[in-house]
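thought: fold this chain, then report.
action: predict
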Amino acid sequence: MSIKRRHMVNQEVKGTLARLLATENLTVEHRRVTTAFFDVEKRLLCLPIWKTASETVYDLLVGHEVGHALYTPQEGLQDAPKAFVNVLEDARIERMMKVTYPGLRKTFFDGYKELWDQDFFGVGEEDLTKIPLIDRINLYYKGKANIEFNEKEQEFVDRAALTKTFKDVLDLANDLYEYAEGLEDEKNDDIDLPNIDAEADTSADKEEEVEIDPVSQEEQQETEEETEGDSAPPRQMSIGGEGEEIQKPSPAAGTEYDETESITEGAFKDALESLIDDSAKEWVYLTLPKVNVKEIVVSAEKVQEDLKYHYFGYPTSSREELEEFEKSREYGFNHYLKFKKDTQKTVNYLVKQFEMKKSADQYKRAATSKTGVIDTNALHKYKLTEDIFKKITTVPDGKNHGLVMFLDWSGSMNQVLLDTLKQTYNLIWFCKKANIPFRVLAFQNGHYRYSDSYSHKAVDPKVNQLHIGSDVRLLEFFSSRQNPRSLEESLRLVYLQAFAMNSWSMRIHQEYNLGGTPLAEAIYCARDIVDDMKRVEKVQKVNVVCLTDGESNPMQYLLERNAEYSYNDDSFLPRQLCHSHGKVFFLRDPKTGFTKKINPSPYNTTKEIVEFFRKITSYNWIGIRLCSKSEANRVFRYFVDEEYSVLDKQWKKERFASVKDKMGFTEAFFMPDQGIGEGTTDLEVKQKSEVATKAELQRAFKKHMGSKMSNKTILNKFIEQIA
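observation:
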């Protein structure tokens, strides 16, 4: 792991630390700013992008800023001296943080020691007894315990340890500043004057030489110029880059400090700037859109109505055209019926495996306990054992399962669409027999032009919010809420649509044609869809299945539109993450506060968004990817190169491969993009003569059993995740 990457992870972790310390729904962001600040109204804690801070110093700075967020009110200073208030308030909030979080005591001690060693307070070479009282108090409460105070000064030190409210701090700051002004007045009244003999002859006739301080005229002039305008000598700090020392000019011998000004408070702020990464990229914090799912989902009833009209009520121009259309429709319908009959064995196998695995899990969780009632059949054993009581075995009820399936309805799916739909139907029939609630939604975009009714405003647009285009639709093809007759009708009609797309002489319904691949946008809606299923159908465990043949469209986020685009009514401009250079993206969930760095590469889109949703939901996320062997090899090399040889062997042996926890999904299945829909291949004998040879029969039987075992292996793996 590179230093840069380690640093990035560190800052993400510290953001989480800040939220935990704050014990509230605090928003933490790192920005290219010179100092940390806290927005009380937005509850936003903004931290600089520090590049050289150690773990300890980082924890110190985070703990310090959280202390301000928790305990420092957003009220004015009421004419109190700002530097004095800052020093005393730092002491108060850090004391309170140590009480609330005792573990921070060591963090503050070690962190300030480290900063002391690096002379962050700018007084490393100074006589600490000579610096202003406010600075000594500052150093004392930041870990310099050997600071000396006189009796009067100790009173202020003790009061600083007893401040409870911000008002206490303001009062103390005013009192301390008044005391410092008094010290300054004493200095001015105590100027060394020449000693003149009062008894000497003062007659005008007599002249005597008076010897005063032997300072040259040039030196005196220089001193006057230095002190003119400012009561304290200038202390400018040049903060160099990494590896450079902080340059501090030492004061001239005998220089007196102004008691009403703080040296250390300003020096510390300046030194902190040396930790900031001036070359850091801009950190952009993205938020999930709050989606009105009803505006995006086309209901199963609407889909069915549209397709039924198209395939059974659409007017034709001629009798010949109608007959040809009806012939193709009948052929497609018979094709569906044959598939439905042939796949029943596969469905029954799925249900059997599911019930077996569910029962095994229940048995594993079963608990046996004694009832306290004597078992009369065991009384004869009372001399040998005390175990003569009746026992009861409690088998906990299994959780109610639910299945939400997102089906890729993009143009690239054209060649595999029918086979994909067959696999989907297997899962639907499995759910029906196993009494599992389900919803199947195809994701699509790009066909809004066919109907104005699909132009939606499902999202209230905001700056830096993930974007959902108005052409994005979720087509609810099937739902367990449909009655058996309606479901069968939908299964038949959607099959006809896919059948027509597969190069058959039957026109398709254009509004349900293939489009883009808004898989990410579909996942944005997943939580609301699942919540609705849990609410209506009392589902406890949900499995979300994403079936696709490739990557999602790149994610987009919203920017404010520049004035040059004022001709457009839309105030926001969508921008792809992968085309936004010089930025680092973080995605934040407004409900949980979870924040994660997002890789903007288009090859990582599906992985990144699924991985994020796995963190903020309790669902089981399953991926099914249809692809060629070469495409599978590319993906394996990109994501899990260290497991490539194992996955390659699995594909060759079982005609599929699965990857756990490496590609966003709980488990991602890679399946060949040809012949995946049928339960098994028919026993087909290819023979050259009228009578098949023994070798021809063996080859046919081997192929048949191979397909059978391959499908059963895939189904077993899938059921393991579902159950």
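thought: worth noting. The CA atoms of residues 611 and 664 lie 4 Å apart.
final: tokens above.
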